[in-house]
Design brief:
Chain A: It comes from Ceratodon purpureus. Chain A: This is F-actin-capping protein subunit beta. The structure holds two protein chains of two kinds. Chain A is α+β, with helices and mostly antiparallel strands. Chain A has two domains: 1-38, no CATH class; 105-261, Aspartate Aminotransferase, domain 1, CATH 3.90.1150.210. Chain A is 37% helix and 30% strand. In chain A, strands 6-7-8-9-10 form a five-stranded antiparallel β-sheet. Chain B has two domains: 3-73, 2-Layer Sandwich (Ribosomal protein S3 C-terminal domain); 77-230, F-actin capping protein, beta subunit (Aspartate Aminotransferase, domain 1, Alpha-Beta Complex). Chain B has a five-stranded antiparallel β-sheet with strand order 7-8-9-10-11. In chain B, strands 3-4-5-6 form a four-stranded antiparallel β-sheet, with no helix packed on it. Chain B has a two-stranded antiparallel sheet with strand order 1-2. The longest helix of chain B has 27 residues, at 196-222. Chain B is elongated and about 95 Å long. The model of chain B has no long low-confidence stretch (mean pLDDT 91). The chains are: A alpha+beta, B alpha+beta. Strand 10 of chain A pairs antiparallel with strand 11 (175-189) of chain B, so a sheet runs across the interface.
Chain lengths: 273, 263
Protein backbone atom coordinates (compact mmCIF):
# COMPACT_ATOMS: atom_id res chain seq x y z
CA UNK A 1 0.00 0.00 0.00
CA UNK A 2 2.84 2.38 0.90
CA UNK A 3 4.52 1.81 -2.44
CA UNK A 4 1.19 2.27 -4.22
CA UNK A 5 0.51 5.58 -2.45
CA UNK A 6 4.07 6.75 -3.15
CA UNK A 7 3.48 6.05 -6.81
CA UNK A 8 0.14 7.86 -6.84
CA UNK A 9 1.74 10.91 -5.24
CA UNK A 10 4.24 11.17 -8.08
CA UNK A 11 2.27 10.23 -11.17
CA UNK A 12 1.56 13.00 -13.65
CA UNK A 13 -1.81 14.31 -12.43
CA UNK A 14 -3.29 13.93 -15.92
CA UNK A 15 -2.61 10.19 -15.74
CA UNK A 16 -3.93 9.69 -12.22
CA UNK A 17 -7.10 7.90 -13.33
CA UNK A 18 -5.07 5.52 -15.48
CA UNK A 19 -2.59 4.96 -12.66
CA UNK A 20 -5.37 4.22 -10.19
CA UNK A 21 -7.01 1.78 -12.60
CA UNK A 22 -3.69 -0.03 -13.04
CA UNK A 23 -3.09 -0.22 -9.30
CA UNK A 24 -6.61 -1.52 -8.72
CA UNK A 25 -5.91 -4.26 -11.24
CA UNK A 26 -2.65 -5.15 -9.48
CA UNK A 27 -3.88 -4.87 -5.91
CA UNK A 28 -7.58 -5.81 -5.87
CA UNK A 29 -7.39 -6.65 -2.16
CA UNK A 30 -6.54 -3.03 -1.37
CA UNK A 31 -9.18 -1.49 -3.61
CA UNK A 32 -11.23 0.22 -0.90
CA UNK A 33 -8.12 1.81 0.62
CA UNK A 34 -6.82 2.89 -2.78
CA UNK A 35 -10.13 4.46 -3.71
CA UNK A 36 -10.56 6.31 -0.44
CA UNK A 37 -6.98 7.58 -0.23
CA UNK A 38 -6.47 8.85 -3.75
CA UNK A 39 -8.29 11.84 -5.12
CA UNK A 40 -9.79 11.69 -8.55
CA UNK A 41 -11.47 14.40 -10.64
CA UNK A 42 -15.15 14.78 -9.86
CA UNK A 43 -17.80 13.14 -11.99
CA UNK A 44 -20.99 14.85 -13.05
CA UNK A 45 -24.62 13.71 -13.17
CA UNK A 46 -27.76 15.41 -14.42
CA UNK A 47 -30.82 16.18 -12.31
CA UNK A 48 -33.73 16.10 -14.80
CA UNK A 49 -36.25 17.56 -12.39
CA UNK A 50 -34.22 20.70 -11.70
CA UNK A 51 -32.43 20.83 -15.07
CA UNK A 52 -29.07 21.10 -13.31
CA UNK A 53 -25.74 19.30 -13.03
CA UNK A 54 -24.54 17.90 -9.75
CA UNK A 55 -21.26 16.38 -8.61
CA UNK A 56 -20.64 12.88 -7.33
CA UNK A 57 -18.66 11.82 -4.28
CA UNK A 58 -18.75 9.30 -1.48
CA UNK A 59 -20.87 11.61 0.69
CA UNK A 60 -23.89 11.64 -1.62
CA UNK A 61 -23.57 7.98 -2.57
CA UNK A 62 -25.73 5.12 -1.36
CA UNK A 63 -24.77 1.83 -2.99
CA UNK A 64 -24.42 2.68 -6.67
CA UNK A 65 -26.80 5.63 -6.62
CA UNK A 66 -26.02 9.29 -6.10
CA UNK A 67 -28.26 11.89 -4.46
CA UNK A 68 -28.84 15.23 -6.16
CA UNK A 69 -28.42 18.29 -3.89
CA UNK A 70 -31.29 19.99 -5.78
CA UNK A 71 -34.08 17.41 -5.67
CA UNK A 72 -32.47 15.25 -2.96
CA UNK A 73 -33.47 12.25 -5.11
CA UNK A 74 -31.19 9.36 -5.98
CA UNK A 75 -30.15 8.42 -9.44
CA UNK A 76 -30.52 5.55 -10.27
CA UNK A 77 -33.70 5.58 -8.20
CA UNK A 78 -33.44 4.23 -4.70
CA UNK A 79 -36.25 3.52 -2.27
CA UNK A 80 -35.14 4.45 1.26
CA UNK A 81 -31.85 5.98 0.17
CA UNK A 82 -29.96 7.77 2.97
CA UNK A 83 -31.35 11.29 3.48
CA UNK A 84 -30.12 14.10 5.76
CA UNK A 85 -32.42 15.18 8.60
CA UNK A 86 -34.93 17.96 7.83
CA UNK A 87 -32.75 20.52 9.63
CA UNK A 88 -29.58 19.48 7.83
CA UNK A 89 -31.43 19.35 4.50
CA UNK A 90 -32.49 22.96 4.97
CA UNK A 91 -28.88 23.96 5.62
CA UNK A 92 -27.84 21.91 2.59
CA UNK A 93 -30.31 23.69 0.31
CA UNK A 94 -29.22 27.09 1.49
CA UNK A 95 -25.57 26.16 1.13
CA UNK A 96 -26.08 24.99 -2.44
CA UNK A 97 -27.76 28.26 -3.39
CA UNK A 98 -25.16 30.47 -1.76
CA UNK A 99 -22.19 28.48 -3.08
CA UNK A 100 -23.73 28.70 -6.55
CA UNK A 101 -23.41 32.45 -6.38
CA UNK A 102 -19.88 32.19 -4.94
CA UNK A 103 -18.98 29.79 -7.69
CA UNK A 104 -20.28 32.09 -10.36
CA UNK A 105 -18.29 35.02 -9.05
CA UNK A 106 -14.98 33.22 -8.82
CA UNK A 107 -15.33 30.64 -11.56
CA UNK A 108 -17.56 32.38 -14.13
CA UNK A 109 -19.25 29.06 -14.81
CA UNK A 110 -18.58 25.59 -13.52
CA UNK A 111 -20.62 23.29 -11.31
CA UNK A 112 -20.92 23.18 -7.52
CA UNK A 113 -22.58 20.84 -5.05
CA UNK A 114 -22.78 20.82 -1.26
CA UNK A 115 -23.73 17.79 0.81
CA UNK A 116 -24.43 17.85 4.54
CA UNK A 117 -24.60 14.91 6.91
CA UNK A 118 -24.42 13.92 10.54
CA UNK A 119 -21.10 12.30 11.49
CA UNK A 120 -20.93 8.89 13.13
CA UNK A 121 -20.41 10.24 16.65
CA UNK A 122 -23.62 12.24 16.32
CA UNK A 123 -21.93 15.45 17.43
CA UNK A 124 -22.21 18.54 15.26
CA UNK A 125 -22.40 18.04 11.50
CA UNK A 126 -20.17 17.63 8.46
CA UNK A 127 -20.36 19.04 4.97
CA UNK A 128 -18.51 18.82 1.71
CA UNK A 129 -18.33 21.54 -0.88
CA UNK A 130 -17.42 20.39 -4.38
CA UNK A 131 -16.57 22.67 -7.26
CA UNK A 132 -15.71 21.62 -10.80
CA UNK A 133 -14.69 23.93 -13.62
CA UNK A 134 -13.87 23.16 -17.23
CA UNK A 135 -11.91 26.17 -18.40
CA UNK A 136 -11.11 24.89 -21.86
CA UNK A 137 -12.15 26.70 -24.98
CA UNK A 138 -14.75 23.99 -25.58
CA UNK A 139 -16.02 24.28 -21.99
CA UNK A 140 -16.58 27.34 -19.83
CA UNK A 141 -13.37 29.14 -20.78
CA UNK A 142 -14.20 32.71 -21.74
CA UNK A 143 -10.94 33.88 -23.15
CA UNK A 144 -10.03 31.02 -25.47
CA UNK A 145 -6.68 30.56 -23.78
CA UNK A 146 -6.88 26.92 -22.89
CA UNK A 147 -7.07 23.85 -25.05
CA UNK A 148 -7.62 21.91 -21.89
CA UNK A 149 -8.39 23.20 -18.44
CA UNK A 150 -9.88 21.58 -15.38
CA UNK A 151 -10.16 22.50 -11.74
CA UNK A 152 -11.65 20.15 -9.16
CA UNK A 153 -11.97 21.25 -5.57
CA UNK A 154 -13.11 19.03 -2.73
CA UNK A 155 -13.61 20.64 0.67
CA UNK A 156 -14.67 18.58 3.67
CA UNK A 157 -15.67 20.43 6.82
CA UNK A 158 -16.35 19.06 10.27
CA UNK A 159 -18.27 21.39 12.52
CA UNK A 160 -18.73 21.11 16.28
CA UNK A 161 -20.39 23.65 18.53
CA UNK A 162 -19.18 24.52 22.02
CA UNK A 163 -21.45 23.93 25.04
CA UNK A 164 -22.94 27.44 25.02
CA UNK A 165 -23.56 27.27 21.27
CA UNK A 166 -21.68 30.54 20.88
CA UNK A 167 -18.68 29.27 19.01
CA UNK A 168 -18.16 26.72 16.33
CA UNK A 169 -15.00 24.67 15.81
CA UNK A 170 -14.35 24.12 12.12
CA UNK A 171 -11.93 21.62 10.68
CA UNK A 172 -11.46 21.96 6.94
CA UNK A 173 -9.56 19.55 4.66
CA UNK A 174 -9.30 20.69 1.07
CA UNK A 175 -7.91 19.15 -2.09
CA UNK A 176 -7.54 20.93 -5.38
CA UNK A 177 -6.65 19.10 -8.59
CA UNK A 178 -5.97 21.06 -11.71
CA UNK A 179 -4.73 20.60 -15.23
CA UNK A 180 -4.22 23.14 -17.99
CA UNK A 181 -2.83 23.13 -21.51
CA UNK A 182 -2.50 26.41 -23.37
CA UNK A 183 -3.96 26.77 -26.81
CA UNK A 184 -1.22 28.72 -28.53
CA UNK A 185 -0.60 26.60 -31.61
CA UNK A 186 2.64 28.21 -32.70
CA UNK A 187 4.55 27.79 -29.49
CA UNK A 188 3.77 24.14 -28.91
CA UNK A 189 1.92 22.52 -26.00
CA UNK A 190 2.52 23.87 -22.52
CA UNK A 191 0.83 21.75 -19.86
CA UNK A 192 0.77 22.17 -16.15
CA UNK A 193 -1.06 19.86 -13.82
CA UNK A 194 -1.06 19.43 -10.10
CA UNK A 195 -2.83 18.61 -6.91
CA UNK A 196 -2.42 19.73 -3.34
CA UNK A 197 -4.20 19.06 -0.08
CA UNK A 198 -4.19 21.31 2.95
CA UNK A 199 -5.93 21.48 6.30
CA UNK A 200 -7.13 24.39 8.35
CA UNK A 201 -8.82 24.66 11.75
CA UNK A 202 -10.65 27.63 13.17
CA UNK A 203 -12.86 28.69 16.05
CA UNK A 204 -15.45 31.26 15.01
CA UNK A 205 -18.45 32.92 16.62
CA UNK A 206 -21.74 31.55 15.35
CA UNK A 207 -23.55 34.90 15.47
CA UNK A 208 -23.81 34.98 11.65
CA UNK A 209 -24.54 31.30 11.36
CA UNK A 210 -22.46 28.33 10.27
CA UNK A 211 -22.88 28.87 6.55
CA UNK A 212 -21.17 32.25 6.68
CA UNK A 213 -18.23 30.77 8.56
CA UNK A 214 -17.92 27.76 6.29
CA UNK A 215 -18.09 30.02 3.27
CA UNK A 216 -15.34 32.31 4.53
CA UNK A 217 -13.07 29.40 5.38
CA UNK A 218 -13.56 27.75 2.00
CA UNK A 219 -12.92 31.04 0.25
CA UNK A 220 -9.75 31.65 2.26
CA UNK A 221 -8.53 28.13 1.63
CA UNK A 222 -9.23 28.27 -2.11
CA UNK A 223 -7.32 31.52 -2.44
CA UNK A 224 -4.38 30.05 -0.54
CA UNK A 225 -4.37 26.94 -2.71
CA UNK A 226 -4.75 28.88 -5.95
CA UNK A 227 -1.94 31.25 -5.07
CA UNK A 228 0.21 28.45 -3.71
CA UNK A 229 -0.14 26.40 -6.87
CA UNK A 230 0.37 29.37 -9.12
CA UNK A 231 3.30 31.03 -7.38
CA UNK A 232 5.06 28.37 -5.39
CA UNK A 233 4.42 25.11 -7.14
CA UNK A 234 4.36 26.18 -10.76
CA UNK A 235 7.20 28.55 -9.95
CA UNK A 236 9.30 25.61 -8.81
CA UNK A 237 8.76 23.77 -12.08
CA UNK A 238 9.99 26.88 -13.87
CA UNK A 239 13.07 26.87 -11.64
CA UNK A 240 13.76 23.26 -12.60
CA UNK A 241 13.59 24.04 -16.32
CA UNK A 242 15.78 27.11 -16.09
CA UNK A 243 18.36 25.13 -14.13
CA UNK A 244 18.41 22.41 -16.79
CA UNK A 245 18.92 24.91 -19.58
CA UNK A 246 20.23 28.33 -18.61
CA UNK A 247 19.35 31.39 -20.63
CA UNK A 248 22.60 32.40 -22.32
CA UNK A 249 23.84 35.94 -22.08
CA UNK A 250 22.02 36.44 -18.80
CA UNK A 251 24.09 38.08 -16.10
CA UNK A 252 22.96 36.21 -13.03
CA UNK A 253 25.33 35.40 -10.20
CA UNK A 254 24.77 31.67 -10.50
CA UNK A 255 24.62 31.25 -14.28
CA UNK A 256 27.58 29.84 -16.11
CA UNK A 257 27.95 32.98 -18.14
CA UNK A 258 27.54 35.19 -15.09
CA UNK A 259 30.23 33.37 -13.17
CA UNK A 260 32.78 33.46 -15.98
CA UNK A 261 32.05 37.14 -16.43
CA UNK A 262 32.56 37.69 -12.71
CA UNK A 263 35.95 36.00 -12.93
CA UNK A 264 36.88 38.14 -15.91
CA UNK A 265 35.95 41.34 -14.11
CA UNK A 266 37.80 40.36 -10.94
CA UNK A 267 40.90 39.54 -12.97
CA UNK A 268 40.70 42.82 -14.87
CA UNK A 269 40.31 44.77 -11.64
CA UNK A 270 43.33 42.98 -10.19
CA UNK A 271 45.43 43.87 -13.25
CA UNK A 272 44.47 47.52 -13.41
CA UNK A 273 45.72 48.33 -9.90
CA UNK B 1 7.76 -16.70 -8.30
CA UNK B 2 7.93 -13.00 -7.37
CA UNK B 3 11.63 -12.85 -8.29
CA UNK B 4 10.96 -14.28 -11.75
CA UNK B 5 8.06 -11.89 -12.32
CA UNK B 6 10.20 -8.93 -11.32
CA UNK B 7 13.04 -10.02 -13.61
CA UNK B 8 10.65 -10.47 -16.51
CA UNK B 9 9.02 -7.11 -15.96
CA UNK B 10 12.36 -5.38 -15.40
CA UNK B 11 13.83 -6.84 -18.61
CA UNK B 12 10.98 -5.21 -20.53
CA UNK B 13 10.64 -1.99 -18.63
CA UNK B 14 14.25 -0.93 -18.06
CA UNK B 15 15.46 -0.84 -21.67
CA UNK B 16 12.40 1.16 -22.65
CA UNK B 17 12.91 3.56 -19.77
CA UNK B 18 16.63 3.95 -20.34
CA UNK B 19 16.35 4.76 -24.03
CA UNK B 20 13.28 6.97 -23.68
CA UNK B 21 15.01 8.97 -20.96
CA UNK B 22 18.32 9.00 -22.82
CA UNK B 23 20.35 7.99 -19.80
CA UNK B 24 24.11 8.28 -19.98
CA UNK B 25 26.45 5.65 -18.62
CA UNK B 26 30.12 5.82 -17.72
CA UNK B 27 32.26 3.82 -20.12
CA UNK B 28 34.65 1.52 -18.21
CA UNK B 29 37.70 2.49 -20.29
CA UNK B 30 37.50 6.05 -18.96
CA UNK B 31 36.72 7.56 -22.34
CA UNK B 32 33.60 9.34 -21.11
CA UNK B 33 29.87 8.76 -21.11
CA UNK B 34 27.76 6.93 -23.65
CA UNK B 35 24.26 8.22 -24.33
CA UNK B 36 21.58 5.56 -24.77
CA UNK B 37 19.30 6.64 -27.60
CA UNK B 38 17.29 5.01 -30.35
CA UNK B 39 19.72 6.55 -32.85
CA UNK B 40 22.72 4.75 -31.50
CA UNK B 41 20.97 1.49 -30.71
CA UNK B 42 22.58 -1.42 -32.56
CA UNK B 43 20.57 -3.99 -30.65
CA UNK B 44 18.93 -4.32 -27.25
CA UNK B 45 22.17 -4.15 -25.29
CA UNK B 46 24.68 -2.49 -27.65
CA UNK B 47 24.88 1.23 -28.26
CA UNK B 48 27.14 3.22 -30.55
CA UNK B 49 29.09 6.17 -29.19
CA UNK B 50 30.03 8.16 -32.31
CA UNK B 51 32.43 10.43 -30.46
CA UNK B 52 34.80 7.61 -29.53
CA UNK B 53 33.77 5.38 -32.46
CA UNK B 54 33.09 2.60 -30.02
CA UNK B 55 30.26 0.28 -29.05
CA UNK B 56 29.11 0.11 -25.45
CA UNK B 57 27.61 -3.06 -24.04
CA UNK B 58 24.98 -2.25 -21.46
CA UNK B 59 23.13 -3.97 -18.61
CA UNK B 60 19.82 -2.14 -18.66
CA UNK B 61 18.50 -3.32 -15.33
CA UNK B 62 21.69 -2.48 -13.45
CA UNK B 63 22.07 0.70 -15.56
CA UNK B 64 25.73 0.04 -16.09
CA UNK B 65 28.05 -0.13 -19.10
CA UNK B 66 29.83 -3.45 -18.80
CA UNK B 67 32.14 -3.35 -21.79
CA UNK B 68 33.46 -1.09 -24.55
CA UNK B 69 34.74 -2.26 -27.94
CA UNK B 70 35.84 -0.37 -31.02
CA UNK B 71 32.96 -0.07 -33.50
CA UNK B 72 32.94 -2.00 -36.77
CA UNK B 73 33.62 0.02 -39.90
CA UNK B 74 30.13 -0.80 -41.18
CA UNK B 75 28.58 1.01 -38.18
CA UNK B 76 30.63 4.16 -38.79
CA UNK B 77 30.13 6.90 -41.39
CA UNK B 78 32.51 7.62 -44.28
CA UNK B 79 35.47 9.88 -43.57
CA UNK B 80 33.70 12.60 -45.55
CA UNK B 81 30.55 12.48 -43.43
CA UNK B 82 32.59 12.02 -40.27
CA UNK B 83 34.28 15.32 -41.00
CA UNK B 84 30.95 17.09 -40.69
CA UNK B 85 29.84 14.98 -37.77
CA UNK B 86 33.01 15.78 -35.88
CA UNK B 87 32.69 19.49 -36.57
CA UNK B 88 29.08 19.59 -35.33
CA UNK B 89 29.99 17.51 -32.26
CA UNK B 90 32.84 19.85 -31.32
CA UNK B 91 30.65 22.96 -31.56
CA UNK B 92 27.83 21.12 -29.77
CA UNK B 93 29.98 20.12 -26.82
CA UNK B 94 30.95 23.72 -26.27
CA UNK B 95 27.30 24.86 -26.44
CA UNK B 96 26.12 22.12 -24.09
CA UNK B 97 28.92 22.91 -21.67
CA UNK B 98 27.85 26.56 -21.57
CA UNK B 99 24.09 26.14 -21.43
CA UNK B 100 23.35 22.78 -19.86
CA UNK B 101 25.01 22.15 -16.53
CA UNK B 102 25.51 18.42 -16.34
CA UNK B 103 24.02 17.81 -19.78
CA UNK B 104 25.15 15.19 -22.27
CA UNK B 105 25.06 15.23 -26.05
CA UNK B 106 25.87 13.22 -29.12
CA UNK B 107 25.80 13.50 -32.91
CA UNK B 108 24.85 10.49 -35.00
CA UNK B 109 24.79 9.94 -38.72
CA UNK B 110 21.30 8.64 -39.31
CA UNK B 111 21.09 8.71 -43.12
CA UNK B 112 23.61 8.45 -45.94
CA UNK B 113 26.54 7.38 -43.81
CA UNK B 114 28.42 6.07 -46.83
CA UNK B 115 28.06 9.29 -48.83
CA UNK B 116 31.31 10.64 -50.30
CA UNK B 117 32.09 14.17 -51.45
CA UNK B 118 29.55 15.38 -54.05
CA UNK B 119 27.67 12.17 -53.47
CA UNK B 120 24.40 13.65 -52.26
CA UNK B 121 22.69 14.41 -48.99
CA UNK B 122 23.24 12.88 -45.59
CA UNK B 123 21.57 13.39 -42.23
CA UNK B 124 23.10 14.00 -38.85
CA UNK B 125 21.00 13.73 -35.71
CA UNK B 126 21.98 15.96 -32.83
CA UNK B 127 20.81 14.85 -29.39
CA UNK B 128 21.01 16.86 -26.17
CA UNK B 129 19.78 15.53 -22.85
CA UNK B 130 19.95 17.09 -19.43
CA UNK B 131 18.13 15.64 -16.50
CA UNK B 132 18.20 16.34 -12.83
CA UNK B 133 16.56 14.22 -10.15
CA UNK B 134 16.67 15.20 -6.54
CA UNK B 135 14.10 13.18 -4.59
CA UNK B 136 15.22 14.63 -1.28
CA UNK B 137 14.43 18.08 -2.63
CA UNK B 138 11.22 16.71 -4.08
CA UNK B 139 12.07 17.80 -7.57
CA UNK B 140 13.13 16.43 -10.91
CA UNK B 141 13.12 17.27 -14.56
CA UNK B 142 14.46 16.49 -17.99
CA UNK B 143 15.25 18.46 -21.16
CA UNK B 144 15.65 16.58 -24.42
CA UNK B 145 16.34 18.02 -27.84
CA UNK B 146 16.58 16.02 -31.03
CA UNK B 147 17.67 17.88 -34.16
CA UNK B 148 17.63 16.18 -37.56
CA UNK B 149 20.09 17.99 -39.80
CA UNK B 150 19.96 17.25 -43.51
CA UNK B 151 23.16 18.44 -45.18
CA UNK B 152 23.37 19.02 -48.90
CA UNK B 153 26.90 20.09 -49.70
CA UNK B 154 26.18 20.84 -53.38
CA UNK B 155 23.43 23.29 -52.47
CA UNK B 156 25.42 24.34 -49.41
CA UNK B 157 22.40 23.99 -47.14
CA UNK B 158 21.66 22.41 -43.81
CA UNK B 159 17.96 21.87 -43.14
CA UNK B 160 17.10 21.46 -39.49
CA UNK B 161 14.03 19.80 -37.96
CA UNK B 162 14.04 19.85 -34.21
CA UNK B 163 11.89 18.73 -31.32
CA UNK B 164 12.51 19.96 -27.81
CA UNK B 165 10.67 18.24 -24.94
CA UNK B 166 10.78 19.30 -21.36
CA UNK B 167 9.26 18.00 -18.21
CA UNK B 168 9.60 19.19 -14.64
CA UNK B 169 8.21 17.81 -11.40
CA UNK B 170 7.90 19.29 -7.93
CA UNK B 171 6.29 17.21 -5.23
CA UNK B 172 6.89 18.56 -1.73
CA UNK B 173 3.51 18.19 0.00
CA UNK B 174 1.80 18.32 -3.33
CA UNK B 175 2.38 17.09 -6.85
CA UNK B 176 2.83 19.46 -9.76
CA UNK B 177 4.19 18.67 -13.20
CA UNK B 178 5.07 20.60 -16.31
CA UNK B 179 5.11 19.06 -19.77
CA UNK B 180 6.04 21.12 -22.74
CA UNK B 181 7.40 20.59 -26.22
CA UNK B 182 8.07 22.50 -29.42
CA UNK B 183 8.97 21.69 -32.97
CA UNK B 184 11.19 23.85 -35.14
CA UNK B 185 12.11 23.95 -38.82
CA UNK B 186 14.90 26.04 -40.29
CA UNK B 187 17.37 26.07 -43.14
CA UNK B 188 20.79 27.65 -43.05
CA UNK B 189 23.43 28.28 -45.69
CA UNK B 190 26.84 26.68 -45.20
CA UNK B 191 29.34 29.32 -46.18
CA UNK B 192 32.82 28.79 -47.58
CA UNK B 193 35.47 29.24 -44.99
CA UNK B 194 32.97 29.02 -42.15
CA UNK B 195 32.96 25.90 -40.04
CA UNK B 196 29.75 23.95 -40.77
CA UNK B 197 29.51 22.71 -37.19
CA UNK B 198 29.62 26.21 -35.73
CA UNK B 199 26.97 27.43 -38.18
CA UNK B 200 24.60 24.58 -37.46
CA UNK B 201 24.98 24.66 -33.67
CA UNK B 202 24.52 28.41 -33.74
CA UNK B 203 21.04 27.90 -35.22
CA UNK B 204 20.23 25.25 -32.64
CA UNK B 205 21.37 27.52 -29.84
CA UNK B 206 19.27 30.36 -31.17
CA UNK B 207 16.10 28.30 -31.58
CA UNK B 208 16.47 26.70 -28.16
CA UNK B 209 16.78 30.17 -26.67
CA UNK B 210 13.63 31.21 -28.52
CA UNK B 211 11.85 28.25 -26.94
CA UNK B 212 13.12 29.16 -23.50
CA UNK B 213 11.83 32.71 -23.95
CA UNK B 214 8.41 31.47 -24.95
CA UNK B 215 8.34 29.33 -21.79
CA UNK B 216 9.24 32.39 -19.78
CA UNK B 217 6.33 34.19 -21.37
CA UNK B 218 3.90 31.37 -20.64
CA UNK B 219 4.94 31.39 -17.00
CA UNK B 220 4.60 35.14 -16.69
CA UNK B 221 1.08 35.02 -18.12
CA UNK B 222 0.01 32.21 -15.81
CA UNK B 223 -1.04 34.10 -12.73
CA UNK B 224 -2.99 36.95 -14.26
CA UNK B 225 -4.29 35.51 -17.49
CA UNK B 226 -4.13 31.75 -17.97
CA UNK B 227 -5.14 30.77 -14.47
CA UNK B 228 -8.16 33.05 -14.64
CA UNK B 229 -9.80 30.62 -17.06
CA UNK B 230 -9.98 28.21 -14.15
CA UNK B 231 -10.51 30.45 -11.17
CA UNK B 232 -10.20 34.19 -10.72
CA UNK B 233 -8.05 35.60 -7.91
CA UNK B 234 -11.02 37.72 -6.83
CA UNK B 235 -14.55 38.34 -8.12
CA UNK B 236 -15.03 41.12 -10.67
CA UNK B 237 -15.95 43.41 -7.78
CA UNK B 238 -12.33 43.06 -6.57
CA UNK B 239 -13.56 42.38 -3.06
CA UNK B 240 -14.04 39.16 -1.19
CA UNK B 241 -17.38 37.40 -1.54
CA UNK B 242 -20.09 38.98 0.59
CA UNK B 243 -21.33 35.93 2.44
CA UNK B 244 -23.83 37.75 4.64
CA UNK B 245 -25.36 39.58 1.66
CA UNK B 246 -25.58 36.34 -0.30
CA UNK B 247 -27.41 34.70 2.59
CA UNK B 248 -29.89 37.57 2.73
CA UNK B 249 -30.40 37.21 -1.00
CA UNK B 250 -31.10 33.51 -0.78
CA UNK B 251 -33.46 34.04 2.15
CA UNK B 252 -35.35 36.67 0.14
CA UNK B 253 -35.59 34.27 -2.76
CA UNK B 254 -36.95 31.56 -0.48
CA UNK B 255 -39.55 33.91 1.05
CA UNK B 256 -40.63 35.02 -2.44
CA UNK B 257 -40.89 31.40 -3.46
CA UNK B 258 -42.98 30.57 -0.38
CA UNK B 259 -45.27 33.52 -1.16
CA UNK B 260 -45.80 32.56 -4.77
CA UNK B 261 -46.42 28.94 -3.72
CA UNK B 262 -49.14 29.97 -1.28
CA UNK B 263 -51.06 32.02 -3.89
Amino acid sequence: MEAAMDLMRRMPPSLSQQALDSLLALLPAHSSQLLSRSDQPLQVAWDEEFDKDYLLCDYNRDGDSYRSPWSSKYKPELEDGVQPSAELRKLEQEANEVFSIYRDQYYEGGISSVYVWEPEDGKGFAACVLIKKDGSDAGDGRRGLLQEGSWDAIHVIEVKEDEDHQFGHYCLTSTVMLALTTANQSSGPFSLSGSITRQMESDLSIENGHLCNIGRLVEEMESKLRNGLDQVYFGKTKEVVFTLREPLGVMSATSHVGQSLQRMIVNDLGRSR
Amino acid sequence: MDERLYDQAAKEAFPEYNVKNMISLEMPDGSGQVLLTEFGQLDRSRYLDPRTASVAVVDHVKQVCTEVRPADDEDLPSAYVEGFRFSVDAALMKYVDDAFQGGECSVYCTKGKDVEKSGGEFELTVVICNSSYSPKNFRGGCWQSVWRVLINEELRTATLQGTISVNAHYFEEGNVQLESSRKFNDTVTLQDGKDAGTTIVHVIEHLESVYLSSLEEQYSNLSDRTFKELRRKLPVTRTLFQWDKALQLSLTREITREFSNKR
